[in-house]
Write a structure and sequence with these properties.
The strands form 2 sheets. The protein has a 4-stranded antiparallel beta sheet with strand order 1-2-6-5, with no helix packed on it. It is mainly beta. A hairpin with a 5-residue loop joins strand 5 and strand 6. It starts with a helix and ends in a 5-residue tail after the last strand. Helix content is about 10%, strand content about 45%. Bound molecules: copper (II) ion (CU). Copper (II) ion binds next to loops.
């Protein structure tokens, strides 16, 4: 078994090891402008299996405005179903953001998802 594991690790390209998780992220607007309730489903990239007991935080940047924003990453709390996490994030303006999910446990990984913060029509 040990030998088998060693062989597997030896042949897996580093690019695969660097991105082992994937996530579905769904952020819904709240009654406050630019405040969103985000639901995250964390899963293994290869198998799609939900990842429970993870330590995840969500940060955000605007790809079109590098260094312009400083959104403090928020720790996501586990939800009801396996692999589910939730966090409330506050952005600084409407437009296209990149949500950055930083996972520290059970593996270190970073998942980036695009998110369009649309101005509500009133
Ligand atoms: Cu901006």
């Amino acid at each position: 078994m040990k030998r088998f594991l060693f062989l597997c690790l030896a042949v897996v390209p580093t690019a695969v090891l660097a991105q082992r998780l994937d996530a579905e992220v769904d952020c819904k607007p709240t009654t406050h402008d630019l405040v969103y309730d985000c639901q995250v489903v964390l899963k293994e990239a290869k198998t799609g299996k939900p990842v429970s007991g993870a330590e995840v935080s969500i940060g955000a940047d605007m790809p079109s405005m590098p260094m312009a924003h400083n959104v403090k990453p928020v720790k996501a709390l586990p939800g009801a179903a396996p692999g589910e996490y939730a966090a409330r994030i506050e952005l600084e303006m409407f437009g296209e953001w990149a949500l950055k999910l930083d996972v520290r446990k059970p593996v270190r990984d970073r998942i980036v998802k695009k998110f369009e913060a649309r101005e509500p029509s009133r």
